[in-house]
Amino acid sequence: MIYPGHDYIANNLQFTLDREPDNARAKALLAEVESQDLDHAFVTNLALEKEINTFFRLHSPSVIARLREAYPDLPADPTAEDVFVKLRELRNTW
User: Fold this and answer.
1) Residue 2 pLDDT > 80, yes or no?
2) DSSP of 35-72, one letter per residue?
3) What global pTM score does this model have?
4) CA 6 to CA 61: how far, in whole Å?
5) Exposure pattern of 28-55 as b/e (b: 16+ CB <10 Å)?
6) 46-60 pLDDT, tens per residue?
7) 77 lies in a domain?
8) 45 neighbors 2 (Cβ within 8 angstroms)
9) 45 is a domain residue
10) Around 44, how many Cα atoms within 13 Å sit in the side-chain half-sphere?
11) Is residue 86 part of a domain?
12) Helix (H) or strand (E) holding 23
């Protein structure tokens, strides 16, 4: 289980959907957590994070395609590190 130290899930899901707008699982979960009771914050697990967290979806064609819009110089076949670094750059100012 991944227990929240802070409530970022809605913001994280919004970032995921900005980078991967076709992620139906993230979209559905965002609708669930937007009005959550923070005294009983939503708890995820690694399997769910792999579905909804952009930083665990470094090989997703949708993530890479959207990233290429912001970074046209992204290699044709970017490594996971290439994708992670560019996502982190975007997230730092998002």
Assistant:
1) no
2) T--GGG---B-HHHHHHH-GGG-TT-HHHHHHHHHH-T
3) 0.86
4) 30
5) ebbeeeeeeeeeeebebeeebeeebbbb
6) 899 999 999 999 999
7) yes
8) yes
9) yes
10) 23
11) yes
12) none
Q: Which residues contact 90 (CB under 8 A, 6 or more apart)?
A: 19, 67, 70
Read off the amino acid at residue 88. Answer: R
**Residue 11 identity (one-letter amino acid):** N
Range of the domain at 70: 9-93
Q: Is the pLDDT of residue 79 over 90?
A: yes
**Residue (of 65, 62, 67, 61) closest to 88 by Cα position:** 67
Are the CB atoms for 20 and 59 separated by under 8 Å? no
Helices (H) and strands (E) in the chain, counts: 5, 0
Domain count, the chain: 1
Residue 62 amino acid letter: S
- The answer to whether residue 1 is domain-embedded is no
